[in-house]
Amino acid sequence: MYELSYIIHYIPGTSILARLDPRSKLLMAVLFIASCLASSEPVSLSLCFLACCGALAASHIQITQVLRALCPLIGLIAGIWLMNLIFYPGSTQLAHWWIISLSREGLEQANLLAARLSLMSFATALVVMTSPAFDLAYGLEKLLSPLQRLRLPIHEISFMMGLAISFVPLFITEWQLLLRAQSSRGACFGRGRLIQRARALASCLTPLFASVLRRAETLGWALEARCYHGGTQRSRLYPIHMSRADYIGLALSLSLLCISILLT
Questions:
Q1: What is the number of helices (H) and of strands (E) in the chain?
Q2: How many domains does the structure of the chain reveal?
Q3: pTM of the predicted structure, to 2 decimals
Q4: Which domain holds residue 47?
Q5: Which whole-number Å values give the CA distances from 256 to 94, 124, 260, in the listed order?
C-alpha cells in the first residue's frame, strides 16, 4: 500500500519557494526542464543538480520527503535506462550475448537520460509540493490566457488540472481504506501467486470506482449549487502578484538555460 508520503502532494509551508508566484514557479520549471534537455555534458548537468539543491534549500522540505514521493518513478527511470543500455547502437562494444549488445555509447546515453529524468522529476516534485493545486491551476490559466482569443477552453483545462492534482491523495486514502476493510474480512493481498494477488486487488476496484463516481457527482452538485460557470471572468480572494524574488528566480533559470545551451 502507498502511504501519502509516497506520492507527490502539497506540503503547507512558508518558505521562499512556497511564497513565490505560481506563474513564476511554472515558468521556472519549464526553463529548468529545457535546461536539462539541452544538457549533454557533465558540467551542465552538474549545474542543473546544483540548481535542484538550491531549490530544495529554499523550499525547507526534507530531501527524504522528496525522494519518498519519487519512489513510484524509480521503476520507470530504471526501465528507460535499461532499454537505452541494451538497444542504443554503438561502435565500442562492452559485452555481447545472443541478440543483446552493450556498448559504451549506449551506457553513456542511458546514464544521460536517467540523469535528465531524475533532475526533471525532482524539480517538478518540488513545484507540486510547495504549491496548492488550485494555485498552480490559476497560474497556468493566467499564463495561457492569451490563447483564449483563439476560443480555447483555458479555464476548464486549468480547472481540471487542479482537480486531478488535488484528488490524487483522496483516491490513495480511499484505496488504503478499501484494502484495510478487505483485510479485516480475511482477504490477503501479500501472499500467494501473482495471479492470486491480482484477483484479490481486483475485488477493490469496483468499490473504488463507485467511490470516485460518487465524489464526482457530489462535486458537480456543489459547483452547481454555487452557480459555477467556467467561461466567465471569476475574481479571486487572494490575488497573485509577482515580487522581486520571482524575477530573480526567472533570471537565474534563464541564465541556467543559456549556459546549458552554450556548453552543449
A1: 10, 2
A2: 1
A3: 0.80
A4: 4-263
A5: 35, 16, 6
